[in-house]
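ESCALATION

Customer reports they have been waiting on this structure for their group meeting. Please prioritize. Original submission:
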Amino acid sequence: MNNLYKKLIFLTLLPFVLNASSLKEIIEMTLKNNVNIKALNYDVASKKETLKSVSNTLNPTINIGANYTRLDLDTRSTQVGATSVGYLKFGIDLYDGGKNSSIKRQKGFELESTKLGVKASTKEILLQVVTLFYQVKTIDENIMAYKDKSKTLYAQYKREKQKYDIQMVTIDEVLKLQSEYESNRYIVDDLKYQRDYLYQNLSLLAGEKISSVDDSKLPDILNLKYQSSSSIKALQVGLKAANENIAQVTAIKKPKIRFEDSVNVYHYSDYNEGLLKDLPDTQNQLMLSFSLNLYDSSSSSKRQSAILAKMVKKEQLNYAKAKEKMVFDLAIKKLATQKSKVASAKSALDMAVSVYDIILTKFQNGIVDNIAYLDALSKKTINQALYNQALNNYEIAKANYYFSSGVDYKEVLKLKPM
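Update from on-call: job pushed to the front of the queue and completed.
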């Protein structure tokens, strides 16, 4: 490829380069606009309000109400026919076996677990963004490689067509080049569809239209130490919440003490005022109650159910820990393997380019036929595509290594705190 041709390609692609979105920009769009992240944050807000609703463990209540009672049949002279009562009642749990305190702790753990879950889910979404970013880069670069092949094929086709017109070559020499050119156009069209599909998925995650990406690279960070991710921490907090669920069931068997104070205002009608002269207009009633559940048929089963639910969470936590460590170890091996693939793909591309240059010279001088030429051209293009894919898969491998290590993604992606 001569310098003039390179300049023409650069000038053609310049508007796309200037408008291309960097990986950092797309990630910041995602953190700001992604609907799944927004939904997760709404869930956090909901859990905060739930915690507020149970923050007062004494469970104080103030109620206002009224009732009306009327006797219509067989009423004695010493009875009131109709009574209206309005009341204001205050109540508070002096001791409930620790149930309300346990509920408060449980809701606090659930809030903490939800926050950690948001971090874990956000990291998964960002890993999808990084993966799509480099997948679309691979497609973009391969489209350029196959378009370059099309231009080369078309130029050779025109040259062979001119030779055929003056009967220097046979028609099959021309048709082979034309067939290869059409097959290559088919590949380009298929790659364009794949590119549109990936760009639409990337735009959906980012919440904004993305039509081109730049040449962003992830930083090279070696020797990361594995640390528990937000997902593991969320499961650990969930285990604490399960303990509180057991405590709430256990509280059923503990004594309860409640205090209530009510002010009642009475109004009477349809009664013998001569006999009933000292009916009260207002009364203040204090009540201190004590209760103890000696037996019920369900508390034992509820407690066993809560214990089994905790065991489920514990086993899920053990499995998640083992799996996460396995994923991290595999990510290290994948990174090393992918780095080796880049070197191999580069070597294969260099050799394919060298072979193509030799075969091209021989083909133009009539030493080899177009079958050898087309084979060399195809191998050069395929190896270029494989090299592009190897480079971008290496970036994806780095992302998987970083994200599976448990390190803060903001540190890896050089993002400012939100």
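Sent to customer with the following note: The first strand starts at residue 61 and ends at 70.
Escalation resolved.
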